[in-house]
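Sample pair:
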Amino acid sequence: MSSDTPHTIADVLAAEAEMAERTKDDPPGPRVRSQRPPKDPSEVYSLRIPIDRLDEVRRLAGQGHATPAALLRRWILERLDVEAGRRPVDGSDEARRQVADALRKALAVVENREIA
């Protein structure tokens, strides 16, 4: 190691701060973009939402530890899935129905084994 190499975190941070101060007025370097195409390309779409409803979205997003944009995106994608038939209208009720059906079938199998 050379004598100029920082030895502690404090040294590293001090060196970074010094470099940042020295280069703060320099123009930014070139931006680097990934050469890979995105897995799921998307597009920004703007929509108007009444302010009072947007307050509701913000509150709900905060409760779910999400950003309002992420919550709105999830809701829209879920609704698209419902409309396309890829998802039941109310997932919780459908999940309960599926579990109940599976339990009924399992119970019928057990009952048939006990009779035999």
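The two ends are 80 Å apart (CA to CA).
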